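2024-03-11 09:14:02 INFO worker-7 job=invfold-0412 stage=load source=structure_tokens
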């Protein structure tokens, strides 16, 4: 459905490299709609909650150190199939396995970007990072050119 939403975060490496505009442009050009965005340095508690499912992994502490080390741009994007399609646009977790044309494939960063992997994960992640009042429900005037 057209009101499917996903959570997308650009981590400190991408923010420091000035990749935010390029990444927003890709989702915008695709026809997806930005309904929430903010820049913050996440607390350890926020990071640990976000990555709770990875807490037993050997890289967990390093991952939390990294994502709390600088600014993160947290976004919510909306549109048909956005959870699955955004994952495809982002590429594989390992940038070396990511196809050219994907964000990770094109920018080759080691831990570049994160996008929800399933609709239920997306709902959980959006709830961790955003208050409902921080999300904007709107209809772009271009919708008629994007959806039948
Ligand atoms: P994704 O970011 O593609 O959703 P994930 O949820 O499995 O991947 O992992 C979250 C982050 O953890 C990922 O962006 C980078 C880091 N990570 C994953 N696997 C890793 C590994 N084997 N070694 C180091 N960091 C890893
Ligand atoms: Mg993930």
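2024-03-11 09:14:09 INFO worker-7 stage=emit residues=148
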């Amino acid at each position: 459905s057209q009101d499917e939403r996903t959570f997308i975060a650009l981590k400190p490496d991408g923010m420091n490299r000035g990749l935010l505009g390029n990444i927003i442009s890709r989702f915008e050009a695709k026809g997806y709609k930005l309904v929430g965005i903010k820049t913050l340095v996440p607390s350890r508690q926020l990071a640990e909650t976000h990555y709770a499912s990875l807490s037993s992994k050997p890289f967990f502490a390093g991952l939390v150190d990294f994502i709390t080390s600088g600014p993160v741009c947290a976004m919510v994007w909306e549109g048909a199939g956005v959870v699955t399609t955004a994952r495809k646009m982002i590429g594989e977790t390992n940038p070396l396995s990511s196809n050219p044309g994907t964000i990770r494939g094109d920018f080759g960063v080691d831990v570049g970007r994160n996008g929800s992997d399933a609709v239920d994960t997306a709902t959980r992640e959006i709830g961790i990072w955003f208050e409902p009042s921080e999300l904007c429900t709107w209809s772009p005037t271009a919708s008629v050119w994007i959806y039948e």
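2024-03-11 09:14:09 INFO worker-7 stage=report msg="Residues 114, 117 surround magnesium ion (ligand 2) (CB under 6 Å)."
2024-03-11 09:14:10 INFO worker-7 job finished
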